[in-house]
Records
---
Amino acid sequence: MRRHRGFTLIELIVVMAIVALLAGIAAPRYFASVDRAKVNALRSSLAVMRDALDKYAADKGRYPDSLEQLVQDRYLRQVPEDPLTGSTQSWITLPPPDNADLVGQVGDVRSGAAGRAPDGSLYAEW
């Protein structure tokens, strides 16, 4: 009589337990690194847009009326996507400071994302 070779149920359960243990260890680190990447991308996007706003104001003598105007005048290639909301429309624009002699609608930009950063600050206050 010929016997079929294969894995026993116990061997399969042990392998599945090892895979589940490894996934349980790796998953939290993966999601934490994804969150850190989004935070870093947000900081970078804000820095680039604020730099473009400053250069626009220095070149034109006024602030732009919208973020799209920065794109039209080629200070940005495109309005970046807010990495936390996944939208280019969620940016909150702020008027120029009162002590600025320059006119225009957009003097600063902030994220429209709700929630807190890992350091405890609100994303909308960056």
---
Amino acid sequence: MAKDHGPSIKNDEQYEKLVDEGMSREKAARIANDPNSGKKGGKASKYEDRTKEELYEKAKEIGIEGRGDMTKDELIEALRNH
């Protein structure tokens, strides 16, 4: 049974697993709180297949700073490493 992390974490079991695998608490919480998390089955489009605008919107959604000055490749790197 997963520890209850309170109302800020929607999927405690997934959150704990991600943190145990070495993911940052912030990123693990973002994934565990996504209602689509675990339902896509790896079918999300690759970052390289998305437009720069789509990448910008995703970066905005998760709070990556400096995104307005980034190239598409820089946005991809920032999203992967956030």
